[in-house]
Write a structure and sequence with these properties.
By secondary structure, this protein is of the alpha+beta class. The protein folds into two domains: about 220 residues, Thrombin, subunit H, CATH 2.40.10.120; about 90 residues, PDZ domain (Pdz3 Domain). A hairpin with a 2-residue loop joins strand 18 and strand 19. The radius of gyration is 22 Å and the shape is elongated.
Length: about 325
């Protein structure tokens, strides 16, 4: 067993103590149909972390997805009836709420300031009222940042934190914290192919969608209305595009924002608001930074000519 300096251990203990009363167990009941279309209840467990004094609790979408009942169990073992406020499958984040009197909100940190190699502590409350003693704790380091994961069902999760702190299924939805006790991510244990590594949704991602989930029950995202592909030297040469980077429009959604702006299949998106676009991920990132209803200037290359078209972004369809 490795030995650590006592001041190091004290710092870890203090960080865990700071956030423990913010971490809750979430147990759910879902109605599932069998092969004969009969409905039967299936229970599940996960964790969550309180983020404000109004009782809002952040967890994973897959923890509460399809739930008919949500029960929140606090650090002290008290149980409260809860409900789902909003979900965002695209980030695997959800917000539940319970009138839990003995829960205090956690301090949210800054995931943009994370560095590979710094310590990370994963906390969850998988057993709730079954086992007393508070949350469970594992410790590791930030192994990598900005991870891009594609699941077997085709879903893609971007900008994830990778850590070697163990994240067991019951800890899914609990916080990943730094040594000051600040939440830096929300743990997710739904990536089954991960062996010896865990992933967390950066807390800054959570911050950007939290208000929408509480106000609307969903995330209001801007939408361009195209399907595109990366322009490479090979693609440019094959289609005679005349540029070696950008996004080639391969499909325009009828009556979408791009269609309304007369963007056509075969166009190449070169820049957005004067910022060069190298590939589809850069285009998606540029659109995400805009608000629904905002106008953007897109530099388009079409059959050897370039021109600027104005696009008004709409809300992404659900």
């Amino acid at each position: 067993m490795p030995s650590f300096p006592s001041e190091f251990e004290d710092r870890i203990v203090e960080a865990v103590s700071k956030v423990s009363r913010s971490v809750v167990n979430i147990s759910t009941v879902q109605l599932v149909r069998d092969h004969f279309f009969n409905l039967y209840p299936v229970s599940g467990i996960g964790s969550g972390v309180a983020v404000d004094s109004s009782g809002h609790i952040v967890t994973n979408h897959h923890v509460v997805a399809g739930s008919r009942e949500v029960v929140v169990t606090t650090y002290a073992g008290a149980r409260y009836e809860g409900w789902v406020v909003g979900v965002d499958p695209a980030t695997d984040i959800a917000v539940a709420k319970a009138r839990a009197e003995d829960v205090q909100p956690a301090e949210l940190g800054d995931s943009d300031a994370l560095k590979v190699g710094q310590l990370a502590i994963a906390i969850g409350n998988p057993f709730g009222f079954l086992l007393r003693g508070g949350p469970t704790v594992t410790i590791g380091v930030i192994s990598a940042l900005n991870r891009y994961i594609r699941l077997e069902d085709g879903r893609v999760y971007e900008n994830l934190i990778q850590t070697d702190a163990a994240i067991n299924p019951g800890n899914s939805g609990g916080p990943l914290i730094d040594t000051s006790g600040r939440v830096i991510g929300i743990n997710t244990a739904m990536i089954s192919q991960a062996q010896g590594i865990g992933f967390a949704v950066p807390v800054n991602t959570v911050k950007t969608i939290l208000e929408d989930l509480i106000r609307f029950g969903r995330v209001v995202r801007p939408w361009l209305g195209i399907v595109g592909m990366d322009v490479t030297k090979e693609v440019s040469r094959y289609y005679g595009l005349g540029v070696d980077e950008g996004v080639l429009v391969v499909r325009v959604v009828p009556e979408g924002p791009a269609a309304e702006a007369d963007i056509e299949e075969g166009d190449v998106i070169v820049s957005v608001d004067g910022v060069r676009i190298g590939n589809t991920r850069e285009l998606q990132a540029a659109i995400k930074r805009k608000a629904v209803g905002s106008q953007i200037d897109m530099l388009i290359r079409r059959r050897g000519f370039e021109g600027v078209t104005k696009v008004i972004l709409a809300e992404a369809p659900t």
